[in-house]
8-oxo-dGTP diphosphatase
Amino acid sequence: MRTERVSGNGQADRREPKVVVGAAIIADGRVLACARSAPPEVAGKWEFPGGKVEPGETETAALIRECAEELAVRVEIGDRIGRDVRMAHGRSVLKVYAARLHHGDQPKALEHSELRWLTAAELDSVTWLPADAPIVAALRPLLATG
Ligand SMILES: Nc1nc2c([nH]c(=O)n2[C@H]2C[C@H](O)[C@@H](COP(=O)(O)OP(=O)(O)OP(=O)(O)O)O2)c(=O)[nH]1
């Protein structure tokens, strides 16, 4: 969806929604879930590591950068998981990709309050950010089949 705003000179200005990317890092039939430490209204809610795609950056590059910044790991990005999820009244969109860790890399919670590796059966044991619900649903059968 496009949003339309009126810019300073009074002309209508069409803007694409901001893209937020998330990495569903999968290893041994488990996915890495990360508890947000901030801001207060979402602290303690669980998400996929990731963040906003910077201008001129590809979604893959953003995921690689965010995983390095947040977890100190190198990742290989795979297929999309689930659909685009509209957030913030259509001002942003969440896109999640499957990811694999480079051999030997171990995620560290540099920005999150906690990390957990969840099996399909454990996906509902944490409270995900609301936008993640359809992604978690799409992920469940992928984890179950390994
Ligand atoms: N990374 C991530 N963000 C999510 C998920 N689900 C969800 O609703 N979000 C929301 C939370 C935030 O409002 C937004 C991501 O913003 P962020 O603050 O983490 O992005 P960023 O790392 O680029 O942060 P900043 O530089 O703007 O501070 O998307 C998810 O699974 N992963």
The beta strands are 3-6, 12-15, 18-27, 30-35, 46-47, 50-52, 75-87, 92-101, 114-118. The longest strand covers residues 75-87. Confidence is low (pLDDT under 50) at residues 7-13.
